[in-house]
Write a structure and sequence with these properties.
Chain A: This is ATP-binding cassette domain-containing protein. Chain A: GO terms for molecular function: ATP binding. Chain A: It comes from Demequina litoralis. The complex is a heterodimer. Chain A is an alpha/beta fold. Chain A has a six-stranded mixed sheet with strand order 6-7-8-3-9-10, with helices on both faces. Chain B has one domain. Helix content of chain B is 73%, strand content 0%. Chain B contains eleven helices and no strands. Chain B is flat, with a radius of gyration of 23 Å. The N and C termini of chain B lie far apart (54 Å). The chains are: A alpha/beta, B mainly alpha. At the A-B interface, helix 3, helix 4, strand 11, helix 14 and helix 15 of A face helix 1, helix 7, helix 9 and helix 10 of B.
Chain lengths: 570, 268
């Protein structure tokens, strides 16, 4: 194998910054590798990848020292235009990368700009390689997240690059979409010899797809190792903010050494070590599964149906005949693929819109009888992207907006209390947009809580967060559930479902296909397949080993295996 | 008061109408034509009314563009806005003539200018609802416009649905979380509040989009937009066919006929 990217003592400082973002980086990436670049926020991952296509130092003209060679070209001597024939870059916010009206125009845009006569053939080829030929005539704003991501990838692929860089592919698409994208990247890597570099937080994707791993810390690589060796350094990864995959934690909990890459491997490892927990009948059933009398109804929907007008003018039905009652104390996770009707159902439940058919009674009020602004006293709706909730110039002003506007005498005390609960008091005077991803989510939770709603509705509260921030948001949701009567969360995140929800509602094509506790959902293979859901690794491992009831979190696993360990050590 | 989902005259409807208009999704006669010919056709009808003071000719030209607008399948929102402007203009003309002591001739002169304006407006509506962004930008390129302008046009269209969506969400947020109040006489208080929200919505929208535009600019750089070698390739995709010639031919004949009609039966 030959070296495709060679960095030699490379340093870079952004204009106006007071310290180097990249510090003395020496690194080699071989042709045909599938590299995952990992590291905490601010470790220089993105800047590193932008040196590959010359954006650093040609577009970002800062202090550049050392040497970077890509496919034999010195990036300092060549231009972004030359290098973009070699390196394709897919951004984390890939939606903003799409600049043409239709998918075909978008994919042909690069080759056309470089005056390549065969731009049509290149475009067609790129679309065929990713299996999106059928989308060629679509407008880019009609695409789902996953389709848009593939389009962005196709638009760099049409330049026939030798290297593709993808920045955080999992951040903005659902798990099924993320796996599809990784499968495509693997295929490009295997069949076409394209070198792939991904910036990735999620250990499970890295261990499943990558060949080697670069750990970045404070602007320099700590090491560059084959994936198996990298996975074995779980503790080191954890200190850099990359928690180990659940299966690795599960083995560690039983003192079984090793870093399994898949659930099956973990199961074999545990069986071989003789550390398989017995059919743990001694397990206590936790309260979530215990039957309890439902509380007062917070929101009731009866024979709900709704739909939207499309650009073509016809009515696209989204919900059909949905009956649903959510009671005090419920923590509901709404799951289902894109377009199943999750967001629509939530908007209707919160009174943002009224249904075309059927009725909704929210906290004793028919949503048709009151304006959405009045209904906001009963239900708080948290939009999917946190910055959409930041309407004022500080977090405090945003949290204060609702209670102060309604003339609550205790508004200021309430705001202080809420900010304290989400641990944002110190950052309260900053604009929400300047916070990190996890802090932004907590700020939106604070906004919702300050509305003192009976029902909290949150659209994808853990999307595009790294694992550590995601866990902190789940923990926070858990803590806060006491202060609101009921919460409904639309999500793709099965960790959130497993660790937080008491009730899962599976939507498909606008109908409720199941309404059950999370444990029952993860036990039902047919249902999982139907709704295209992938249970968390720990649940899959528990099932593989025949645990009953299956653990829903690593903490649950530790409890479940505790008796086994005591016996083993006795 | 009972809320319900409305299909027309709602915010959602305005958004859909704008998208349909901008992206020429309704089709229509001119949508199949070469953009250069559509622009040429438009210029023909935009200039012709100013060449005459003959009322018959102006009326005939107006009828011609009205028929074109029908063939272009102009949507109800744009047509409604046009009619609103057209009718209020007429009322204003009569009012002005009457108040300032003018006679029938003053009114006719004012009607004449309004009719000319209406003709030009209808022609531009018909032309631009028929050009989707890609066509319009390629057409402009072919007519010698700078690359940046052509791209700006197509990118502007691309941003429109995004900005509209963003505005909708931020506006909803403001409406839900700001202090509610009474509707007031004829809903004027509510209208005033909504106006305030619309203005306040700009702060978050600007900041939210500014962040995303950075990605766009970088990506344009990497995809050779500034390399700027694709002009010929883009223009080479256009071709003028039989339909183009026929439409422009028929229009030229109709315009000449309108002038002929005017000299034969002048109205004023």
């Amino acid at each position: 194998m030959t070296a495709l990217i060679e960095l030699d003592r490379l340093s870079f400082r952004y204009p106006g910054a007071d310290r180097d973002t990249l510090r003395n980086v020496s690194l080699t990436i071989e042709e045909g590798d599938f590299v995952a670049v990992i590291g905490g926020n601010g470790s220089g991952k993105t800047t590193l990848c932008k040196t590959f296509n010359g954006l650093v130092p040609h577009y970002w003209a800062g202090d550049f020292a050392g040497e970077a060679r890509v496919a034999g070209l010195d990036t300092y001597e060549s231009s972004v235009a030359e290098l973009s024939g070699i390196v394709g870059y897919v951004y984390q916010d890939f939606q903003n990368q799409l600049v043409r009206p239709r998918v075909r125009d978008e994919v042909e845009f690069g080759p056309m700009n470089f005056g390549m006569e065969d731009f049509q053939a290149r475009g067609a080829e790129a679309m065929a390689m990713l299996g999106i030929d059928h989308l060629a005539e679509r407008f880019v704003w009609q695409l789902s997240g996953g389709q848009a991501h593939l389009t962005a990838l196709a638009s760099v692929l049409s330049m026939r690059p030798r290297i593709i860089v993808v920045d955080e592919p999992v951040a903005e698409v659902d798990p099924a979409g993320a796996h599809a994208l990784y499968e495509r990247l693997t295929q490009l890597n295997r069949d076409h010899g394209i070198t792939v570099v991904v910036i990735e937080h999620h250990a499970e994707f890295i261990s499943q797809y990558a060949k080697s791993v670069i750990l970045m810390d404070d602007g320099a690589p700590v090491w560059h190792l084959p994936v198996a060796e990298a996975a074995a350094r779980a503790d080191e990864l954890a200190t850099h903010g990359i928690p180990a995959p659940q299966i690795v934690d599960a083995c560690a909990a039983l003192d079984v050494p090793g870093a399994p890459r898949t659930v099956a491997e973990a199961a074999t490892l545990l069986r071989d070590a003789g550390a398989v927990p017995r059919l743990a009948s001694s397990l206590r059933t936790d309260d979530a599964a215990a039957p309890h009398a439902p509380g007062r109804p917070v929101v009731t929907a009866s024979s709900l149906s709704h739909g939207y007008r499309t650009v073509a003018g016809d009515l696209m039905p989204v919900l059909h005949d949905v009956d649903l009652a959510i009671h005090a104390g419920d923590r509901v996770a709404l799951v289902g693929g894109n377009g199943a009707g999750k967001s629509t159902l939530m908007r209707l439940l919160g009174g943002l819109q009224v249904p075309r058919g059927g009725s909704i009674v929210l906290d004793g009020v028919d949503t048709r009888s009151r304006s959405s602004a009045r209904l906001a006293d009963h239900a708080a709706y948290l939009f999917q992207r946190p910055e959409q909730m930041f309407l004022k110039d500080s977090v405090r002003a945003d949290v204060r907006l609702h209670p102060a506007g309604r003339g609550r005498p205790d508004a200021d005390a309430l705001v202080d209390r809420v900010l304290d609960r989400v641990r944002l008091t110190d950052l309260a005077d900053r604009d929400g947009r300047t916070l990190s991803g996890g802090q932004q989510r907590r700020a939106t939770l604070a906004i919702g809580l300050a509305m003192s709603p009976a029902l909290l509705l949150a659209d994808e509260p853990t999307a595009s967060l790294d694992v550590a921030s995601r866990d902190s948001v789940i923990a926070m949701l858990d803590e806060l559930s006491g202060t609101i009567a009921a919460a409904v969360v639309a999500t793709h995140d099965m960790h959130l479902v497993a660790e937080w929800a008491t009730r899962v509602i599976v939507l498909e094509h606008g109908r409720i296909v199941a309404d059950l506790p999370p444990r029952d959902l993860f036990a039902d293979d047919a249902l999982l397949a139907q709704a295209r859901l992938v249970p968390p690794q720990i649940v899959a491992l528990g099932r593989e080993l025949g645990l009953d009831p299956v653990p829903l979190s690593v903490a649950g696993w530790r409890d479940a295996v505790a008796p086994t360990r005591t016996e083993a050590h006795a | 008061m009972s809320r319900k989902t409305r299909d027309v005259l709602s915010v959602e409807w305005v958004k859909l109408e704008l998208i349909r208009t901008a992206y020429a999704t309704r089709g229509g006669l001119f949508a199949k034509m070469d953009p250069r010919m559509v622009i040429g056709w438009y210029l023909l009808l935009a200039v012709a009314p100013w060449m005459t003071h003959n009322f018959t000719t102006i009326l005939a030209l107006f009828v011609l563009t009205a028929a074109s607008a029908a063939l272009a399948r102009v949507g109800p929102l744009v047509l409604g806005l046009f009619l609103f402007g057209f009718i209020t203009d007429f009322l204003y003309a009569f009012l002005a003539a009457w108040l300032f002591g003018g006679d029938a001739n003053t009114a006719i002169a004012l009607i004449e200018i309004n009719l000319k304006l209406a003709t030009v407006s209808l022609a531009s509506i018909a032309a631009f609802v028929s050009l989707d962004p890609e066509k319009l930008s390629t057409g402009l390129l072919a007519l010698g416009a700078p690359e940046l302008l052509a791209f700006g046009v197509s990118y502007g269209y691309r941003m429109m649905p995004i900005l509209f969506e963003e505005f909708g969400i931020v506006f909803t947020g403001l409406r839900l979380r700001s202090a509610p109040g009474p509707r007031g006489f004829l809903g004027l208080r509510a209208l005033w509040r909504w106006g305030t929200y619309a203005v306040q919505a700009f702060y978050p929208i600007f900041l939210n989009t500014a962040k995303s535009v950075r990605t766009t600019v970088e990506s344009l750089e990497t995809r050779g937009f500034t390399a700027n070698q694709g002009r010929e390739l883009r223009i080479a995709r256009l071709s003028i066919g039989g339909l183009d010639m026929a439409v422009v031919g028929v229009t030229v004949v109709a315009v000449v006929a309108a002038f002929g009609l005017g000299t034969r039966w002048p109205l004023g």
